[in-house]
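FAQ

Q: What does a record look like?
A: Structure on top, sequence underneath. For example:
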């Protein structure tokens, strides 16, 4: 697994996806949006703060205590997190059907249990988060401020 973890980290060596990771993400987002993959994954669409285009990428949906969450495995300094802030948290999820959502930032002191759950269900994220999936809650509390977590709230469809 160490070799695979090194490979996954190499796809985001600069904190941004390289060309191959972008290609993989585009393909994964398409498959997830089509509803072909398991229910815990989806495509997240966020408007680009400069282009205004809806930019789609794959995410793992983390469920905990009846709520759904999205985690930024690369931390807070990534485009989709900045785009989300510019869009006031408005986004879309696709997994077969399209769902308008509002993503609400979770405070760092509340993130540890969500991050712990996320690392357990998202194997592709493990190399990017420096805590073992078997680690104690205190270890996740130490890193929580570095990894944004957003609670997914469905928005009513205008009608």
């Amino acid at each position: 697994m160490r070799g695979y973890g090194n490979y996954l980290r190499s796809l985001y060596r600069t904190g941004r996806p390289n060309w191959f990771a972008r290609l993989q993400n585009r393909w994964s987002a398409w498959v997830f949006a089509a509803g072909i993959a398991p229910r815990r994954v989806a495509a997240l669409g966020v408007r680009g703060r400069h282009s205004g285009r809806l930019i789609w990428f794959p995410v793992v949906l983390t469920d905990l205590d009846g709520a759904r969450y999205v985690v930024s495995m690369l931390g807070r300094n990534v485009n989709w997190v900045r785009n989300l802030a510019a869009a006031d948290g408005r986004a879309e999820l696709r997994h077969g059907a399209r769902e308008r959502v509002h993503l609400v930032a979770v405070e760092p002191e509340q993130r540890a249990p969500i991050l712990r759950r996320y690392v357990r269900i998202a194997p592709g994220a493990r190399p990017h988060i420096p805590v073992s999936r078997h680690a104690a809650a205190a270890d996740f509390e130490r890193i929580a401020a570095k990894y944004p977590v957003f609670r997914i709230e469905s928005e009513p469809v205008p009608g």
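Q: Is there anything notable about this one?
A: The chain has a mean pLDDT of 87.
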